[in-house]
Amino acid sequence: METKASLTQGSEQVIVIVPTYNEAENIVPLVSQVFQQKGVDRVVIVDDCSPDGTGQVAEGMVAREPNRVSVVHRAGKLGLGTAYIAGFRRAFDYGATRVITMDADFSHQPSYIPAMLRMSKSCDLVIGSRYVPGGGSRNWGISRRVLSRSANAIARITLGLAAHDCTAGFRCYDSELLQLIDLDVIRSNGYSFLVEMLFLCQKTGASVGEVPIIFEDRHFGRSKISYMEILKAWQTIVRLSAQRLRGWLHPDSVREGV
User: Fold this and answer.
1) β-bridge pairing 98-101 and 171-174
2) Cα 57–60–65 angle (5° rounding)?
């Protein structure tokens, strides 16, 4: 994939996707802050039937701003990866030119969106990164810092990823890049989806940039990262490493989709 060309002035449609599960306390102030950022046209909330009524709170925002907020309601807690895919498809329906993904818990501050959009004019994928100069995390314990650093290092080395923050969910994708990827064949879900998406984007030849951010621990509620999520992430890295090795050994079969 060649580096993206600049979009014609006035043709952009920037859509922010926010997956939610039990984020009733966060979603209204988050969406309000997102719309304070220049360049955002619409927010798509993908709610996994939150028991705390997040979906109903989101519908209240739709009633007030039907041209700026929409909700995808899902039958249950189906996972972060499939939530992103559902959001991507809704964004395509709205004619998105750029798609931003972010968490609902304020660990991703909306104030970074303008910098990400500026960089997206020259990059196909922009990552809000903890691991470039100026980036970092706040209110994390040592064990979580070590786990995150080690996971990123292993993903970068084994998969040949260029980005420093491979597990970040704060991203800005060019819509044309997303449409090059067969979303139906992605096997990972949860947080390992983020590693697989970066791997697939890089395989297209996409240009990747990183904007430094300070990742803040969630404002309300509890973290949804579990030991099972961590195990799945390692499994995904092993599977993609095997796929990468097959590409080295049998490049013709990989091009043919074998």
Assistant:
1) antiparallel
2) 130
Three-state secondary-structure class, residue 216:
strand
**How wide is the angle at C-alpha 60 spanned by C-alphas 58 and 62, nearest 5°?**
75
What single letter denotes the amino acid at residue 143? S
120-151 pLDDT, tens digit per residue, is: 999 999 999 999 999 999 887 787 788 788 88
User: How many angstroms separate the CA atoms of 239 and 158, rounded?
Assistant: 11
Q: Give the percent of the chain with pLDDT over 70.
A: 85
Q: What is the pTM of this model?
A: 0.86
Nearest to 24 by CA among 45, 44, 8: 45
The structural domains of the chain, ordered by start, are: 14-246 (3.90.550.10)
CA angle in degrees (0–180, nearest 5) for 145-150-151:
100
